[in-house]
Specification:
Structural class of chain B: mainly beta
Strand content of chain B: over 45%
Distance between the termini of chain B: 41 Å
Structural class of chain A: mainly beta
Order of helices and strands of chain A: EEEEEEEEEEE
Largest sheet of chain B: 6 strands, mixed
Radius of gyration of chain B: 14 Å
Number of strands of chain A: 11
Largest interface: A-B, 26 and 25 residues
Shape of chain A: globular
Number of helices of chain B: 0
Oligomer: heterodimer
Radius of gyration of chain A: 14 Å
Number of helices of chain A: 0
């Protein structure tokens, strides 16, 4: 199936640990994103990459480090996990528009629910 | 401050009834406007978008939205809801800076009653 996939779907870990979430898209898109959705469903962008180049880097603690080995993958590594990192993390991707600029149509993965205890 | 507001946190509608979800934005220029839907346990799916032109836009699943510049609004409508429409709905905006950054509203949870 063509889609944006994330692994794992659920992640439960203790404070202080380091963890990674993986994202892959086989839609042939050039831009990928990480979003954080908190317990109140508020969705906020964290990072975006265009063809492996960092484009958007919001005010995110430097414990969060995205890595894009190729344009189909964007992984999120989190060091020294804190209770406040508990959230659902969504990966998304988008193609270029017909004129070669952004299409603004983002396709989301199913999310990874991270629980820090 | 620039923002996007969804005034209704939770709306309950009877199946078959009409629906309108509100979205207002506060930006100096007209942003690009979007509605996304999130079913329980799922990621977000784009329903429709407005960039320019006709202010009434049609989307998937029978939804439409109307852009009203004078009211800085982009309300989502559906003439007859189905039980499968129960979900969280997010309005989002993007400014034409070329970096595709979407700013989301806080969402409206839609409950459908038989």
């Amino acid at each position: 199936d063509t889609a944006v996939s994330q692994t794992p779907k659920y992640l439960v870990t203790q404070m202080g640990n380091d963890k990674s979430i993986k994202c892959e898209q086989n839609l042939g898109h050039d831009t990928m994103y990480w979003y954080k959705q908190d317990s109140k469903k508020f969705l906020k962008i964290m990072f975006s990459y265009n063809n492996k180049e960092l484009i958007i880097n919001e005010t995110v603690p430097n414990r969060f480090s995205p890595k894009s080995p190729d344009k189909a993958h964007l992984n999120l590594h989190i060091n020294s996990l804190e209770l406040g990192d508990s959230a659902v993390y969504f990966c998304a991707s988008s193609p270029f528009g017909t004129s070669g600029g952004p299409s603004y149509e983002q396709y989301f993965g199913p999310g990874t629910r991270l629980t820090v205890t | 401050a620039q923002s996007v507001t969804q005034p209704d946190i939770h709306i309950t509608v009877s199946e078959g009834a009409s629906l309108e979800l509100r979205c207002n934005y506060s930006y100096g220029a007209t942003p690009y406007l979007f509605w996304y839907v999130q079913s329980p346990g799922q990621g977000l799916q784009l329903l429709l978008k407005y960039f320019s032109g006709d202010t009434l836009v049609q989307g998937i699943k029978g939804f439409e939205a109307e852009f009203k510049r004078s009211q800085s609004s982009f309300n989502l409508r559906k003439p007859s809801v189905h039980w499968s429409d129960a979900a969280e709905y997010f309005c989002a905006v993007a400014l034409n800076f070329g970096n595709e950054k979407l700013t989301f509203g806080t969402g409206t949870r839609l409950t459908i009653i038989p």
